[in-house]
Amino acid sequence: MKKIIALLGDHYHDKRLLQKSLMKAMEKLKLESGVLRIEYIEVEQLAEKLQEKPDAVILSKQNKRNPTAENVEYWMDEKLEKQICEYVHSGGGWLVWHSGLSSYEVREDYYSMVKGKFDFHPSELLDVAYQWNNTDDNLRILDAAYNVRDEHYFVTCEERKTNVFLHAISEKGKTVAGWKHEYGKGRVICLTPSHTEEGLLHDEFTNLLFSSLTWCCGKLA
After folding, report:
1. Of residues 219, 151, 160, 144, the one with CA closest to residue 187
2. Looking at the domain assignment, is residue 130 inside a domain?
3. What's the order of all strands across the beta sheet hosting 2-8?
4. In which domain, by residue range, is 206 found?
Protein backbone atom coordinates (compact mmCIF):
# COMPACT_ATOMS: atom_id res chain seq x y z
CA MET A 1 0.00 0.00 0.00
CA LYS A 2 1.50 3.28 -1.14
CA LYS A 3 0.47 6.24 1.00
CA ILE A 4 0.48 9.92 0.04
CA ILE A 5 -0.56 12.77 2.31
CA ALA A 6 -1.64 16.14 0.93
CA LEU A 7 -1.94 19.66 2.34
CA LEU A 8 -4.00 21.63 -0.14
CA GLY A 9 -5.65 25.04 -0.36
CA ASP A 10 -5.25 28.44 1.26
CA HIS A 11 -6.70 31.95 1.20
CA TYR A 12 -6.20 32.31 -2.56
CA HIS A 13 -6.47 28.69 -3.73
CA ASP A 14 -9.59 26.52 -3.67
CA LYS A 15 -8.91 23.21 -1.91
CA ARG A 16 -11.74 21.47 -3.77
CA LEU A 17 -10.35 22.42 -7.17
CA LEU A 18 -6.87 21.23 -6.21
CA GLN A 19 -8.37 17.94 -5.03
CA LYS A 20 -10.20 17.59 -8.34
CA SER A 21 -6.96 18.06 -10.26
CA LEU A 22 -5.12 15.63 -8.00
CA MET A 23 -7.85 13.00 -8.31
CA LYS A 24 -7.60 13.17 -12.10
CA ALA A 25 -3.87 12.53 -11.85
CA MET A 26 -4.34 9.83 -9.22
CA GLU A 27 -6.63 7.84 -11.51
CA LYS A 28 -3.65 7.40 -13.83
CA LEU A 29 -1.45 6.45 -10.90
CA LYS A 30 -3.94 3.83 -9.67
CA LEU A 31 -4.04 2.21 -13.08
CA GLU A 32 -0.25 1.92 -13.25
CA SER A 33 0.78 1.16 -9.69
CA GLY A 34 -2.10 -0.76 -8.17
CA VAL A 35 -3.07 0.00 -4.60
CA LEU A 36 -2.40 3.38 -3.06
CA ARG A 37 -4.10 5.74 -0.65
CA ILE A 38 -4.19 9.51 -0.33
CA GLU A 39 -5.07 11.31 2.88
CA TYR A 40 -5.91 15.01 3.06
CA ILE A 41 -4.69 16.66 6.23
CA GLU A 42 -4.33 20.09 7.85
CA VAL A 43 -1.04 21.63 8.89
CA GLU A 44 -1.70 20.81 12.55
CA GLN A 45 -1.59 17.09 11.64
CA LEU A 46 1.61 17.14 9.61
CA ALA A 47 4.11 16.45 12.40
CA GLU A 48 2.20 13.36 13.51
CA LYS A 49 1.63 12.08 9.97
CA LEU A 50 5.32 12.38 9.06
CA GLN A 51 6.09 9.88 11.80
CA GLU A 52 4.07 7.32 9.79
CA LYS A 53 6.65 7.71 6.97
CA PRO A 54 4.32 8.20 4.00
CA ASP A 55 5.72 7.54 0.55
CA ALA A 56 5.22 11.19 -0.43
CA VAL A 57 3.82 14.51 0.77
CA ILE A 58 2.12 17.02 -1.53
CA LEU A 59 2.23 20.65 -0.40
CA SER A 60 0.01 23.15 -2.22
CA LYS A 61 -0.53 25.70 0.52
CA GLN A 62 1.26 28.97 1.19
CA ASN A 63 3.14 29.43 4.45
CA LYS A 64 1.14 32.48 5.53
CA ARG A 65 -1.83 31.68 7.75
CA ASN A 66 -3.33 35.16 7.34
CA PRO A 67 -1.85 36.73 4.16
CA THR A 68 -4.11 39.80 4.21
CA ALA A 69 -3.42 40.70 7.86
CA GLU A 70 -1.06 43.44 8.98
CA ASN A 71 0.86 41.04 11.23
CA VAL A 72 1.46 37.92 9.19
CA GLU A 73 1.77 34.53 10.91
CA TYR A 74 3.57 31.52 9.43
CA TRP A 75 2.55 27.94 10.09
CA MET A 76 5.95 26.28 9.50
CA ASP A 77 8.06 26.78 12.60
CA GLU A 78 11.64 25.69 13.25
CA LYS A 79 10.68 22.38 14.88
CA LEU A 80 8.41 21.35 12.01
CA GLU A 81 10.98 22.51 9.45
CA LYS A 82 13.57 20.20 11.00
CA GLN A 83 11.15 17.27 11.00
CA ILE A 84 10.25 17.82 7.33
CA CYS A 85 13.87 18.00 6.24
CA GLU A 86 14.72 14.86 8.21
CA TYR A 87 11.73 13.01 6.71
CA VAL A 88 12.87 13.77 3.15
CA HIS A 89 16.57 13.24 3.86
CA SER A 90 15.83 9.76 5.20
CA GLY A 91 13.95 8.72 2.05
CA GLY A 92 10.63 10.59 1.83
CA GLY A 93 9.17 12.29 -1.21
CA TRP A 94 8.20 15.98 -1.21
CA LEU A 95 6.12 17.49 -4.01
CA VAL A 96 5.81 21.28 -3.90
CA TRP A 97 2.91 22.49 -6.04
CA HIS A 98 2.09 26.10 -7.01
CA SER A 99 1.35 28.04 -3.78
CA GLY A 100 3.52 25.53 -1.90
CA LEU A 101 6.40 27.75 -3.08
CA SER A 102 5.01 30.89 -1.44
CA SER A 103 6.66 32.47 1.64
CA TYR A 104 8.73 29.48 2.78
CA GLU A 105 12.05 31.25 2.20
CA VAL A 106 11.80 32.48 5.82
CA ARG A 107 12.89 28.94 6.79
CA GLU A 108 16.52 28.66 5.71
CA ASP A 109 17.00 24.87 5.92
CA TYR A 110 13.70 24.17 4.20
CA TYR A 111 14.55 26.62 1.40
CA SER A 112 17.91 24.88 1.01
CA MET A 113 16.04 21.61 0.54
CA VAL A 114 13.50 22.95 -1.98
CA LYS A 115 15.96 25.22 -3.86
CA GLY A 116 13.37 27.74 -5.04
CA LYS A 117 10.60 30.16 -4.14
CA PHE A 118 7.70 32.12 -5.58
CA ASP A 119 8.52 35.76 -6.42
CA PHE A 120 5.43 37.26 -8.08
CA HIS A 121 2.83 36.86 -10.80
CA PRO A 122 1.24 39.49 -13.08
CA SER A 123 -2.20 40.54 -11.88
CA GLU A 124 -3.91 39.42 -15.08
CA LEU A 125 -4.28 35.92 -16.48
CA LEU A 126 -2.06 35.27 -19.50
CA ASP A 127 -1.65 32.77 -22.31
CA VAL A 128 1.15 30.67 -20.86
CA ALA A 129 3.17 28.10 -22.79
CA TYR A 130 4.63 25.31 -20.68
CA GLN A 131 7.64 23.78 -22.42
CA TRP A 132 9.44 20.60 -21.39
CA ASN A 133 13.15 19.99 -21.24
CA ASN A 134 13.19 16.79 -23.27
CA THR A 135 16.63 15.75 -22.06
CA ASP A 136 14.94 14.47 -18.89
CA ASP A 137 13.77 10.89 -19.44
CA ASN A 138 12.67 10.24 -15.85
CA LEU A 139 9.27 11.91 -16.23
CA ARG A 140 6.62 10.37 -18.44
CA ILE A 141 5.58 13.44 -20.38
CA LEU A 142 3.68 12.91 -23.63
CA ASP A 143 4.10 16.15 -25.56
CA ALA A 144 6.80 18.79 -25.90
CA ALA A 145 4.60 21.73 -24.83
CA TYR A 146 1.10 22.92 -24.10
CA ASN A 147 -0.63 26.29 -23.84
CA VAL A 148 -3.24 27.38 -21.32
CA ARG A 149 -4.77 30.54 -19.86
CA ASP A 150 -3.16 30.74 -16.46
CA GLU A 151 -1.50 32.71 -13.71
CA HIS A 152 2.13 33.09 -14.75
CA TYR A 153 4.27 32.33 -11.70
CA PHE A 154 7.74 33.86 -11.69
CA VAL A 155 10.16 32.14 -9.34
CA THR A 156 13.70 32.08 -8.05
CA CYS A 157 15.27 28.68 -8.67
CA GLU A 158 18.81 27.57 -7.86
CA GLU A 159 19.21 26.02 -11.30
CA ARG A 160 22.80 24.89 -10.77
CA LYS A 161 21.76 22.82 -7.76
CA THR A 162 18.74 21.06 -9.27
CA ASN A 163 17.41 19.65 -12.56
CA VAL A 164 15.07 21.98 -14.44
CA PHE A 165 12.58 20.14 -16.67
CA LEU A 166 9.88 22.75 -17.36
CA HIS A 167 9.69 26.43 -18.33
CA ALA A 168 6.73 28.84 -18.50
CA ILE A 169 6.63 31.48 -21.23
CA SER A 170 4.21 34.37 -21.77
CA GLU A 171 4.29 37.92 -23.10
CA LYS A 172 5.73 38.89 -19.70
CA GLY A 173 8.79 36.70 -20.06
CA LYS A 174 10.19 33.25 -19.34
CA THR A 175 10.75 31.52 -16.02
CA VAL A 176 11.47 28.09 -14.60
CA ALA A 177 8.25 26.13 -13.92
CA GLY A 178 9.45 22.70 -12.78
CA TRP A 179 12.57 21.23 -11.17
CA LYS A 180 13.58 18.14 -9.23
CA HIS A 181 16.52 16.71 -7.29
CA GLU A 182 17.48 14.21 -4.66
CA TYR A 183 17.89 15.29 -1.05
CA GLY A 184 19.78 12.74 0.96
CA LYS A 185 17.91 9.48 0.31
CA GLY A 186 14.73 11.37 -0.60
CA ARG A 187 13.32 13.28 -3.56
CA VAL A 188 12.02 16.81 -4.04
CA ILE A 189 10.04 18.00 -7.06
CA CYS A 190 8.54 21.48 -7.58
CA LEU A 191 5.78 22.55 -10.00
CA THR A 192 4.50 26.09 -10.55
CA PRO A 193 1.34 25.30 -12.66
CA SER A 194 -1.53 25.96 -12.22
CA HIS A 195 -4.02 28.41 -10.73
CA THR A 196 -7.03 28.33 -13.05
CA GLU A 197 -9.49 25.47 -13.42
CA GLU A 198 -8.54 25.28 -17.09
CA GLY A 199 -4.90 24.83 -16.17
CA LEU A 200 -5.44 22.45 -13.27
CA LEU A 201 -7.66 20.07 -15.25
CA HIS A 202 -5.72 20.24 -18.53
CA ASP A 203 -4.76 16.72 -19.62
CA GLU A 204 -1.10 17.60 -20.05
CA PHE A 205 -0.93 19.10 -16.58
CA THR A 206 -2.51 16.07 -14.93
CA ASN A 207 -0.07 13.92 -16.93
CA LEU A 208 2.72 16.02 -15.45
CA LEU A 209 1.29 15.77 -11.93
CA PHE A 210 0.97 12.00 -12.35
CA SER A 211 4.58 11.71 -13.52
CA SER A 212 5.77 13.93 -10.67
CA LEU A 213 4.01 11.79 -8.09
CA THR A 214 5.43 8.55 -9.42
CA TRP A 215 8.96 9.97 -9.52
CA CYS A 216 8.51 11.46 -6.03
CA CYS A 217 7.47 8.04 -4.68
CA GLY A 218 10.51 6.45 -6.29
CA LYS A 219 8.61 4.33 -8.83
CA LEU A 220 10.59 5.58 -11.83
CA ALA A 221 14.03 4.98 -10.34
Report:
1. 219
2. no
3. 36-40, 2-8, 56-60, 93-97, 186-191, 173-183, 163-170, 126-132, 145-150
4. 2-117+177-216
Distance set, CA 217 to CA 43, 62, 71, 100, 195 (Å): 21, 23, 37, 18, 24
**How many angstroms separate the CA atoms of 78 and 76, rounded?**
7
Q: From 158, 204, 163, select the one nearest 187 (Cα to Cα).
A: 163
Q: pLDDT tens, 78-136? A: 999 999 999 999 999 999 999 999 999 999 999 999 999 999 999 999 999 999 876 55
The CATH number for 196's domain is 3.40.50.880
Compute and round to an integer the Cα radius of gyration of the chain.
16
Which backbone phi and psi does 99 adopt, to 5 degrees? -65, -10
Check residue 221 and give its pLDDT: 36
Q: What pTM value is reported for the model?
A: 0.93
